[in-house]
Every structure is written in C-alpha cells, then in structure tokens.
Design brief:
The complex is a heterodimer of chains A (273) and B (201). Chain A has 273 residues and is of the alpha/beta class. In chain A, 18% of the residues lie in helices and 29% in strands. The longest helix of chain A has 13 residues. Helix content of chain B is 4%, strand content 30%. Classes of the chains: A alpha/beta (273), B mainly beta (201).
C-alpha cells in the first residue's frame, strides 16, 4: 500500500482485537468478581488496610494491582486501581488505601465500607512492577507515603520466603503518625534477616528520632543505595514528584535506568483517586 | 449488573460531559504521569526520529529537520488506562500523514520505540488519516520530560500508553509484535470506548 496525506486505508485487513501475547502465558479475560470485606485495619489517621475474601482468587505477584468498581443505586459507576499489599502466601487480598478528601472512591473505601460489605474487583494486573523472592539481586525499595503499599507486598513475600536476598527500604513519610505499617516494619527489621529499613520524615519529627529528617536527596541515596557494582533490583513508588526525584538520584549514582522500576500516582504535585 | 455498592453515591460530574467519558474513566483537571522507569533526558544534538522496518528507504530526521516539518496544532481528549481522562488537551506536532508521505510498505502493523527501551505496538491504520501525531509542544510550551519531551506520540483515540513518550522512531512490521505494556498484561489494541484495558478485554 502507499501511505500519504490522503491515503485510503480501507484495504488493510486486520483484527485489532486479536490478542497474541509473545513469550508470556496468555490467559482469558479478567472477570469482575464480588469481594467481601473481612477485616478493616486503620494504619494511620488517613490510611486503612482492607482485607477481602475474593472467591477463586488466582494468586498474584508482589507489586501487582487490582481494579475495583463501585456501583450506585442509579447505575452510576466508578473504577479505580489499587496496589495489593498482601503477599501471595496469604489467602485474603489486602489493599491499603489513603483517604483523599477530594476523592470519589477512597473516602468510600476508608469511611463508608464496613466488614461484610462487598465490592466488585478484578485482577491481578501488571507484569512489570513485580518482584519474586527467587530474584537474587539485592533489593532496594524506595517509597513515598502510600507508595509503600506494593513494596510492602514484596517485603511480606520476602519474609515468607526460605531464601532471603538482602533488602533495603527507604521510606519517606510526612510525620511519625503518618508512617504506614510502622510497627510491622519494625518487626520485619528486627528479624535481622538481611533487611534494613531507613525512615525519613519530611515535616515533624518526634523527640529522640534517629532517622532522616528531610526530603530524599543525593546524600541520602548515596548512604542507602546498594553500590552499583551489586546491580540491585530497584522499585520506586510514590507521588510523581517523589518518584521523579528518587529515580533521577538513582540514575545519578550510576544505576542503569533499566534496573529502576517505577510506579507513580497523581499529577505533578496533585493527586487523583 | 445488578450489584449495588451499599452507601455509594459517587461524585456526579457535569452530565453534558458524560458522553465524552469512556466507560470506567473519570475526569481530571491536572495531568497525571505514568511511566515504567526513570525519565530519560536525550541530547537534542544527537536526537533523531526514524521510520524503519518494512520500508525500502528508511527515513530519518534530526531534531532541527523535524521542527522544520509542517506542524499542526490539535486539541484532543486523552484517556489513560489507569482511569483518568483529560479533556481538551492542546498539542503541536507533526501528523503521521506528513511523516508517511510517499512511503510504500507491505506492513500492516507498527512498533513505536523510545528512549528508555519502551515500545508499543499499533496497527498501521491507526496512525494514518489524521489519527496520530508526533508532538513536541503541550499548551504552547515545549513538552516537559516527565510527559515525554522532547517529543512523544499522540494517538488520542486509544488508551494513552499507546502514545509513547520519548519517541525515537517507528518500525513497520508485517506481523504484530506486542510492545512493553502489551507483554505485561495490557491489551494489544486498547480502545477506551470498548474498555480494552487488559489481556482478553
């Protein structure tokens, strides 16, 4: 065929719906299923973990997400994506959700939804931002706020694995009270099994605080990041400006950009959801 | 249908706009960012855009040559697979009809390739007849690196991951070759109006 400004392309015959996945296991459509809330855990004043019983859950990898769908009585629907917080080893599927005051879905999930309620869910989704405990490279996790959620699935998966690769988490929160999973992270670090956790607080710090007290910067990354010679596996998740800054700093210490997997939420300085 | 979320009302949007919003999407006024890795910052002195693959004489433009091509300013609604949509985004760039002028090919598919090793695949017919552009300005400003600058694809009738950021070229393919997200669980075609988000949708 000849292409040009006025070309007619009706001669092309193709089936754009044909799904041919090369080199990966293909599977059928992800169907919506009704998931029942079985437990609600308040993590911080704004953040809650929701544990769902999902019938016929096919299992997932740490880092994957699900879509949820809410339907009002008049048929109005809203869909959002949320990272999975639970490891594959657990039966229930946990989501950890930050309530955004101007949000449409998060105030419903953190505030209205009660144990015994159901919502529609489908997943797991995503094959890039995932980590398996069999990966021998040292693991570097960098989280801003609720960006810790998919990284927590990785740490919980690692804790359940028989062979534990060395791991570091750098976790930036606004205040001490805003540290999501704080006690569980303390317990994971106390296991002394090769996991080191570094916290930084960007607003208020309590008396006796020994962690960092500033936004992530080059000196902090230098101190926390594995030497590039160790070719680490790196996952960065958080608000867009945080992820941009962290990823640039990691490239700045000589990391190959392809080692650094990122997941961002929200706009440049604002948030959706 | 039939399932109701107890106690859910939702935030009603301007109903005049509801016909412009594909199923499962919500409207945003800001501009979220989605990418799989660090933001590349290519050197414009060595930047090129090429058309290669199933083509007798591959084509290549430098940054200066690319800016000299006839440009269009277009205003489009965009739809991201992560559920946000943004209306009336204004871009300046070069139509694929201009880039493909005089190109003869047996290909029916294409792969866009970008800095950062990103690829995405599209049927050739989705690039032509005023459906796709390579853009380098957003709202009258040079395109910010986070949003794909210096230049990105704009294919607004498909989910926005099909509009590859940091674009460096298009390969014309006889066979369809799934790109980066397409091998990671996302739909091969990605029509927002048929909610083709994932494999099997």
């Amino acid at each position: 065929m000849i292409l040009g400004a006025s070309s007619v392309t009706g001669e092309i015959s193709l089936n754009p719906h044909e799904v041919r996945a090369f080199g990966v296991t293909s599977r059928g459509p992800l169907l919506w299923t009704q998931a029942e809330l079985v437990e609600l855990v308040h993590e911080t004043p704004r953040v809650a973990s929701l544990l769902f019983n999902v019938p016929d859950w096919p299992g997932h990898l740490p880092g994957q997400h699900v879509d949820i769908r809410l339907t009002a009585e008049d048929g109005y629907q809203a869909e959002r994506s949320y990272s999975i917080a639970s490891p594959p080893e657990e039966r229930s599927v946990a989501l950890t959700v930050e309530r955004l005051d101007d949000g449409e879905v998060s105030p419903y999930l953190v505030g209205e939804l009660r144990v015994g309620d159901k919502l529609e869910l489908r997943g797991p989704i995503g094959g890039h931002f995932v980590w398996r405990a069999g990966d021998d490279r040292p693991l570097l996790l960098v989280a801003g706020g609720s960006g810790v959620v998919p990284l927590m699935a990785m740490l919980r998966h690692r804790a359940a694995a028989s062979h534990k690769t060395s791991a570091r988490l750098l976790f930036s929160s606004r205040t001490f009270a805003d540290i999501i999973y704080r006690e569980e992270l303390d317990r994971l670090a106390a296991a002394s099994d090769g996991l080191t956790i570094f916290h930084t607080l960007t607003r208020d710090t309590p008396q006796g605080w020994t962690g960092f007290t500033r936004r992530i910067d080059a000196a902090m990354i230098q101190q926390v990041a594995w030497p590039k010679e160790q070719t680490p596996a790196v996952f960065v998740c958080g608000p867009t400006p945080f992820v941009e800054a962290a990823a640039d700093l990691l490239v700045g210490v000589g990391y190959d950009p392809l080692w650094v997997k990122t997941e961002r939420f929200g706009a440049t300085g604002a948030s959706g959801g | 249908m039939g399932f109701i979320s107890r106690g859910f009302r939702g935030k009603r949007r301007d109903t005049a706009d509801s016909g412009r919003l594909p199923p499962g999407q919500y409207l945003v006024n800001d501009y979220p960012v989605l990418s799989a890795g660090p933001t590349p910052r290519p050197n414009l002195d060595t930047w090129t855009f090429s058309i290669e693959g199933e083509i007798d004489t591959p084509k290549k433009w430098t940054w200066q040559e690319f800016l000299a091509l006839p440009a269009e300013t277009v205003t489009k609604d965009i739809h991201c697979v992560t559920k946000w949509s943004k209306f009336d985004t204004t871009w300046k760039g070069v139509s694929f009809d201009t880039l493909f002028e005089g190109v003869e090919t047996a290909a029916e598919y294409t792969t866009q390739f970008s800095d950062g090793d990103y690829t995405t695949n599209l049927p050739l017919e989705d690039l032509v007849d005023g459906k796709a552009w390579i853009v380098y300005e957003y709202n009258g400003e040079p395109l910010h690196p986070e949003h794909g600058g210096p230049a990105r694809m704009l294919v607004p009738h498909l989910y926005f991951w099909k509009s590859a950021k940091w674009i460096r070229g298009v390969r014309l393919d006889k066979e369809q070759q799934p790109g980066f997200w397409e091998t990671n669980g996302y739909n091969n075609y990605g029509d927002p109006w048929r909610e083709q988000r994932y494999w099997g949708d």
